[in-house]
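[STRUCTURE TOKENS]
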Amino acid sequence: MTDTVQPCIAGFAGEVITRGTLEFDQARTLWNAMIGRKPAVILRPRSTSDVVTAVRYARAQALPVAVKCGGHSAPGYSMCDDGVVIDLSLMQRVRVDPEARAAWAQGGALLRVLDAATQEYGLAVPAGAISHTGMGGLILGGGFGHIMRKYGLSIDNIIEAEVVLADGRVVRADEEHHPDLFWALRGGSGNFGVVTEFVLRCHPVGPLYVAAHIFELAGSREPLRAFREHMDQAAPDELAWMSFFRGAPDFPWVPRSLLGEPILMMPLIWAGDPAEGRDYIESLPGWSGGAIVSVSSVESYTALQSQWDEVFCHGRRHYAKAGFLTALPDALLGNVVAHMAAVPSPHTQIEILRLGGAVARFPADATAFPHRSAKWPVNIIGLWEDAAHDPENIGWVREAYDLLTPCLDGGVYVNYAGGEEAGGVRAAYGSAWDRLSEIKASYDPDNMFRSNVNVRPRKQ
């Protein structure tokens, strides 16, 4: 089958990258170094018209299709074996209308491109936390981010989307045009076509007050209780407070003697007036007194969005499992602390976030994201360098997941899903599954777009 691929495709004005070249080996490399798939051809379109040509070519050749933006898909959905990869990395233009507070962004744009364009006007779209993430994949799965409690998920801020469907048609979906597709795109991941342009609602976002505290594992009980109780009861929408169990990262303000040591790190971010944020965070009860490192500053939004870029750099091996915790009882947190003491890699992280705020207030049935009432997203991110250490690192992540299982609600955020969570694919889509399956049958009845957390089309 792969021998039929030609170096030139009629009507395609983008780049055609075939096997046997250095460029091919570079282009098939993903964020997760464990993924080594070899497609038949990688097509880099420059326009929506090129995407149409690529989709029709794959269909005519009866080849599998994968769609790549930033290549961050942990299970490697951005790449396929012996098929066509539609790599959108040449489609990164972003245009902003500051008066309309809207951005027109091509589907291949990285978050750093979106953030730079919107911040030029003091605006931002709530999306992600690592600037080299591909915008398209992140947004279609829901779009967690630093300011989601204030402004909602990324999908809550999609105004319109241009989509190339499996049959090569181009449609624009919004509340009035293809409303079923518009609903499905917002949380249904990449199941329904190639989104070549997003129209996104922007919000005024200036410099943000950020505080961070590091605790030894042995001294983490009190700050964890404060985190749990405050975020469960009294936290305003402006406050994002996160708990990261990991090896101490190589940040300028982290003492060299602490690097790589298992710690609890708690960043607090205020999505509002920095002075108000400083007053609010500093007025919180004295839970942070036991911190071994405490820092605070006022950061630009783009600086905040890129702060973790090197910590989650390309090229490490990665295995993850995730879910939503219903509660954070002391016993559960104690088990996590004990497990972290034996973490095999300093790059591995267990992160616990808090939803609520604008995320929870968005109408539950307005999008395909089914986890509006979920409380505590948890993501176990195994990251290490050497393939020889795969068994111990994968085993450690699985053991951590088992420790959390008694408090998991059975769902998983599609962008965190590692592929082996309890409940399988349906755990990602929950109550939205049946409707997604029906819409899939209308727009992609042959399941052409299946290199993703896949929704199979309902049989007619």
The longest helix spans residues 390-404. The CA atoms of residues 14 and 46 lie 5 Å apart.
